[in-house]
Amino acid sequence: MQVDLTMLEQTQPYVLKQLQTIFDHQKVGHAYIFEGTRGSLVEEMMFYFTELLLCEHPNGHVPCETCRSCVRLQSGNHLNFHEVFPEGQFIKVDAIERLLDELSKKGVEEGRKIYVIHDAERLNVKSANKLLKYLEEPDGTVTAIFLTNNINAIIPTIRSRCQQIKFQPASKKLLVKQLQEHEVTYSSASTLSMITANLDEALRLSNDDAFAHARKTVLKLVEAVSKNVHESLLVVHEEWLPAFKEKEQMELALDLLLFAIRDIVAIKANPEAELTYPDQKQLWSTLALRSSYQHLSVQLEAVLRARQQLQSNMNRTLLMEQLMLNLQEGKSFV
User: The DNA polymerase III delta subunit C-terminal domain covers which part of the protein (predicted)?
Assistant: First the structure.
């Protein structure tokens, strides 16, 4: 991962300064929780901090990028850096056991060991308890970094043993401005700024036909949902399911659908609200007039529930059919 330090400075100046001060004073803790919403550069900051701690010849707060440690980290082959990801809905005990086995190996690499738990809120009680003893009594110089978008969902026994690093929500306005400077339309830039806070990733997506098609398909589904369940099911089977075959594609599509409904809520409350889809303002205004806050709340909850069910590997056809029925619940005109 190539980290843009300037972007970190612009997006998360307080967190960056906090971590750099820790490094300067050589007060590196044994465990941290990085909490931030999507697009707030949590993973990028984690990688920067990791690279800074492992670099053999840092220049102030900048990793050298050329020493053996930096090269190995960039190539994904650093033996003192370990990552754990969820498998399905949870981080399983087997994954923690494999991590502890790697961390217990002697004489592989000198210096600090760092392990990162992604989506740490998905640690279940068994996997968390398995990790807890090592967290309290690490073997050697070890730093744990837990990444999460909801610190309150991490079990208290883990949470109480970590220093908490709170990330600010991503600056949407800054990214939109930067994208427009690269000739991305305001409407596309507004949507992209909800997906990522990384300029390079946003530019890549802006040139990705698959992302453009995803955006178009989601908007078509929103319009179909506003008519009746039969129209929405038709779009699901003919366009949505063929377009979003992979789990990651479905996750993105559901996020885009959630943002659309949030737009409608926002414009109902304030006709001048900033939107994820500013090119759809006229349609959103019409739907806002036709929908009650109660109905929109039901729709938001339905999409969030579908997002959770996707993580538990529910059949995607059944998931979407159920979602279309749930989106009609409580429908009323006001």
Answer: 241-328
Angstrom distance (rounded) from CA 93 to CA 124: 8
CATH for 5-166 (3.40.50.300, 3.90.1300.10, 3.30.1490.100, 3.40.630.70): 3.40.50.300
Confidence of residue 311 (pLDDT cuts 50, 70, 90): confident
> Angle, to 10 degrees, between the axis of helix 247-269 and the axis of helix 293-311?
160
Residues paired with 123 in a beta bridge:
91
Section 24-49 average pLDDT:
91
Q: What is the mean pLDDT of residues 290-298?
A: 93
Q: For residue 73, what are its two tokens? A: 């980290």
Q: For residue 170, give the DSSP letter.
A: P
Distance (Å, rounded) from C-alpha 236 to C-alpha 234? 5
pLDDT tens profile 109-135? 678 999 999 999 999 899 999 999 889
* For residues 65-69, average pLDDT: 92
pLDDT in the model for residue 111: 84
Among 99-108, 111-120, 147-156, name the one with the lowest average pLDDT: 99-108
Alpha carbons 100 and 38: distance in angstroms, whole number: 28
Domain(s) of CATH 1.20.272: residues in the chain: 208-327
Q: 208-327 has which fold?
A: Zinc Finger, Delta Prime; domain 3 (1.20.272)
Own/partner pairs for 125-131, CB < 8 Å, 24+ apart? 125/155, 126/93, 127/90, 127/91, 127/92, 127/93, 127/95, 127/96, 128/155, 128/157, 128/158, 129/157, 130/93, 130/96, 130/97, 130/100, 131/96, 131/99, 131/100, 131/158
Residue ranges of the chain that CATH labels 3.40.50.300: 5-166
- For the cut 80, the answer to whether the pLDDT of residue 211 exceeds it is yes
